[in-house]
Amino acid sequence: MEKLIIYGGRPLNGEIEISGAKNAAVAILPAAIMASKGVCTIDNIPQISDTYCIEKIIESLGAKITKNKNTVIIDSTCINSSNADTDDVRKMRASYYLIGALLGRFKKAKVEMPGGCAIGVRPIDQHIKGFEALGAKVKIEHGAVVVESDRLVGANIYFDVVSVGATINVMLAATLAEGKTILENAAKEPHVVDVANFLNSMGADIKGAGTDVIKINGVKELTGCSYSVIPDQIEAGTYMIAAAACGGKVTVNSVIPKHLESISAKLIEMGVKVTENGDSVTVESHGNLRGVNIKTLPYPGFPTDVQQPMTALLSIAKGRSIVNESIWESRFKHIDELKKMGAQVNVEGNLAIIEGVSHLTGAKVKATDLRAGAAMVIAGLIAKGVTEVTSIQHIDRGYPYIEKKFNALGAKIIRVKDE
């Protein structure tokens, strides 16, 4: 186990490069196993533990993978199993994308129930509803999801709730179904669009991704392609928030500014200067930040994955801020850790009521989940004194080289073994 030692109170200045989107990559990698001909060359894959985990699972199915830095080449023509039952499957939430991918290609799959961060109840009922509508039989046996079908046939599917996971998973299976599938009340997140674009590069016929109605004309087979994953909206937002919190001037490069508009708008409302420049965003902050109210919503609303880092920033903003977490019911676990550093926050149901304080002080805290870990790093950067962040394996699931990137901006963070 490792931990981060953070020496707080240093402004951030300079430029930072954003990696490929975690939430897109962990769906695109499983989608690549649907290619029955050729190889998939995927660029801009983030070097994080979640992508390493998915790659190991794909190899366990019989695929051949070669890597060169951020580029992953997948030859799935030799896959010899539709059973994903390794320990790696149970470690991460996104392993459920293997169900849709394997069902689409082989008309059957057996995948262990997924793991991931404990941020609330995350059922896969909408996934199952979609698979059954396409003609698959779904069972839960001995902790695994078992799906099979003689043939998949397109259908009209209305999701009861907006679900990124269900939208992508059913889209994967429907790509190789017979006839037309229409997904209504679909998620509109950028990584949904990215997965659709990747599938189309393989020969799929998908239209409407990015809207709440996606139309899929089934094709007989998919072939290999070359593709580059979009930039990570959440990583970019995290560094933007850190720059606002610490003060200074940071240019966040290799981003799609439109994906960041809801975050930029709130930072501007707080008194931060945010400037868009093509494929970069510059954040300039000189303190005197004002509290704001935030409600997390599906895209294009404020992202739930940025709520926790934003809470760390709001803890030192003047006045009262209210954060309404409308997506996950257990996404305030970081609040108790922030309180150890002097934050004044009360949680009432899905609301966090924050009274801004003049400063935080260093303490020993833990990363309770991925985005909570990012929040604690930001808290450590703005605190007086030294902060220790433990359980950083959560952080490594979504932020490549986090201490190196922050240190390049003027921070002082050291990764050490946690005895």
From TrEMBL:
Segments forming domain Enolpyruvate transferase: 8-405
2-(S-cysteinyl)pyruvic acid O-phosphothioketal modifications at: C117
Gene3D superfamilies found in the cross-reference section: Enolpyruvate transferase domain
EC number(s) on file: 2.5.1.7
Catalytic activity: phosphoenolpyruvate + UDP-N-acetyl-alpha-D-glucosamine = UDP-N-acetyl-3-O-(1-carboxyvinyl)-alpha-D-glucosamine + phosphate
GO CC terms of this entry: cytoplasm
Pathway(s) annotated for this protein in UniProt: Cell wall biogenesis; peptidoglycan biosynthesis
GO molecular function list: UDP-N-acetylglucosamine 1-carboxyvinyltransferase activity
Protein name: UDP-N-acetylglucosamine 1-carboxyvinyltransferase
Originating gene: murAB
